[in-house]
Design brief:
globular; disordered N terminus; SH3 type barrels; seven-stranded antiparallel sheet; mainly beta; 32% strand
């Protein structure tokens, strides 16, 4: 009987201990300083560096692999003015697209850049403004498989880069894509 009372007492103590005050402090959602606008939330800043099938390395890029350049674009906060190391250079057609993410997010407009090789079964480049396409790019959450339309197109050299944001933080590796016009030697 004493053993049963001890077991009952120990069980009751454990149950009551679990009924202590709950943590009622509201936790704020984590925010990222890496994106300048809500339309860039979910941007996969770093990647494994894989390139789409059929994408050809540029034969004589202005910024060869291993060279450094200054970024002059603000796809994400901390990008403009950062020093980039070139890890890939490819000749292709780059598109700015409008799309609604597959995860029911808000429509993203003028997303720069998706390249021709990241579109599902596209016609010959360059595609006209307003052309409906399916994105195979996975730069942002909900982008892969999303229906999109072409906002603009330009034949250019695109670069995969590594950089440390001017706002601080960890190095972004294998970022896809910046165009040649978005880089300079100084």
């Amino acid at each position: 009987m004493k053993k049963q009372l001890l077991t009952l007492s120990a069980t009751l103590t454990l149950v009551l201990a679990g009924c202590g005050e709950a943590d009622t402090t509201e936790k704020k959602p984590e925010t990222s300083l890496e994106t300048p606008s809500d339309s860039m939330k979910g941007m996969d800043h770093s990647s494994v560096g894989s390139v789409p099938e059929g994408l050809k390395a540029a034969k004589n890029p202005t910024y060869p692999v291993g060279s450094e350049a200054i970024i002059h674009t603000d796809h994400m906060e901390g990008m403009d003015g950062a020093k980039a190391t070139i890890v890939g250079a490819y000749d292709t057609t780059a598109y700015s697209i409008n799309y609604t993410p597959t995860d029911s997010g808000e429509k993203v407009t003028d997303h720069k850049w998706v390249i021709h090789e990241e579109l599902k079964d596209p016609e010959a480049p360059p595609l006209e403004k307003g052309t409906d396409v399916t994105s195979l790019a996975d730069h942002m959450k909900g982008m892969e498989g999303a229906n999109a339309d072409i906002e603009s197109a330009q034949k250019t050299t695109v670069y995969m880069i590594n950089y440390i944001p001017t706002t601080g933080g960890e190095e972004v590796t294998n970022h896809k894509w910046v165009t040649e016009e978005e880089l300079s030697k100084e």
